[in-house]
Amino acid sequence: MAHDGHPEFPTTRMRRNRRHDWVRRLIRESNVTPADLIWPVFVQEGQGVRTPVPSMPGVERLSIDLLVQAVGEAKSLGIPAVAVFPVTPPELKTPDGDEATNPDNLVCRTVRSIKDAHDDIGVICDVALDPYTTHGQDGIVRDGEVLNDETVAVLCAQAFVQAQAGCDVIAPSDMMDGRIRAIREALDAEGLDHVSLLAYSAKYASAFYGPFRDAVGSAQNLGTADKRTYQMDPANTDEALREVALDVAEGADMVMVKPGMPYLDIVRRVKDSFGLPTFAYQVSGEYAMLRGAADQGWLDWDKVIVESMLSFKRAGADGVLTYAAPEIAKLVGA
Ligand code: PBG
Fold first, then answer.
1. Which residue among 158, 180, 222, 262 is least crowded, i.e. fewest CB within 10 A of its CB?
2. pLDDT tens digit string along 190-216?
3. How far apart are CA 81 and CA 40, in angstroms?
4. What is the C-alpha separation between 329 and 322, in angstroms, rounded?
5. pLDDT at 2
6. d(CA 322, CA 260)
């Protein structure tokens, strides 16, 4: 006798497909592998130095020598790429972020060292001025305004020194208008047409970046200011598609949605609309939430971190930037 609300019962029994591990594995739609992971790393000056980030338990800022070793370990775990973020010494920060375009700055030296030591791991560099500015904004500020076109010119020079140092993928995270085309043209004009562009296309003005700003030391610089005149309003979705469309037209090879878990609807819409390699950034605050709860014994870290990766894959992401990349790679195997 069929139940009223479920006329197919008992002929259709959904639980048959869940009965054994082998069948669950057989019908699984999404899988996480080390090849889905990009590992964001923090580099600092010095030799043999590692400094924990208090708001990101388990994450350390490493000097170049230790970072090169860590990248080697990531490579042997099957992680395809790392994203390098510098902790700029405060005395090198200026209102216009000039250190960003120094070909011997910390990021450029790091890229050269990684590339000298390891030939087969991708190196991604952020383009934005916030690690280098005294005010912590991603661009040049005049009379309280973050200037667009003037900033883009500096971003092109920043992208150039990073690409010249051997960076494989330039990832503009600044959210200035028109920067993808400008950077593409600047790189091409210098014979750097093989360098890829991963656009932080849908980057929101999010409070989930807090621990990252602690890690790179830009939190004090930014103070109580915010980035809402260039990063997106967390309330919007259609605007994210317009941002992606522009970046694709301007020459982006891959696009990113950021933050990650609170924005999975955006990941899905972007993937469905454009079919481009689409990445999601599980940002510092997301990492801190999961790690903090796990450290309290409230969540099972191994299970929630892998489940969070599945959520990204299910939403259509081709890969995820996550501070837990090496741990996840170990958990899910080769
Ligand atoms: C810099 C940048 C930020 C992040 C990546 N690149 C911070 C910001 O925009 O303020 C955040 C990453 C994270 O929170 O993990 N433009």
1. 262
2. 999 999 999 999 999 999 999 999 999
3. 9
4. 11
5. 54
6. 10
The Å distance, Cα 209 to ligand 1 centre, comes to 6
CA of 48 to the centre of ligand 1 (A): 26
Residue 128: CB within 6 Å of ligand 1? yes
Q: Best substitution site from 179, 209, 213 to test ligand 1's pocket, by max atoms within 8 Å of Cβ?
A: 209
Q: How confident is the model at residue 119 (pLDDT cuts 50, 70, 90)?
A: confident
Which atom of ligand 1 sits closest to the CA of residue 287? 15
pLDDT digits (tens, 9 = 90+) for 251-273: 999 999 999 999 999 999 999 99
pLDDT at 221 exceeding the cut of 70:
yes
The answer to whether 39 touches 73, Cβ cutoff 8 Å, is no
Burial of 48 (0-12, 13-18, 19+ CB in 10 A): exposed
Residue 79 clears pLDDT 70, i.e. is over it: yes
Which of the residues 203, 227, 271, 313 is marked catalytic?
203
Quick one: pLDDT band at residue 6, thresholds 50, 70, 90? Answer: confident
Helix (H) / strand (E) containing 15? none
Residue 136 has pLDDT above 90, yes or no: yes
Looking only at the bridges linking them, the beta strands covering 50-52 and 60-63 are: antiparallel
Q: Amino acid identity of 67? A: L
Ligand 1 centroid to residue 39 C-alpha, Å = 14
Which tokens is 231 given? 């990063």
Domains of the chain: 35-332 (3.20.20.70)
**CA 92/CA 157 separation, integer angstroms:** 17
Pick from 135, 126, 125: nearest CA to 96:
135
Q: What is d(CA 43, CA 50) in angstroms, rounded to the nearest whole number?
A: 9
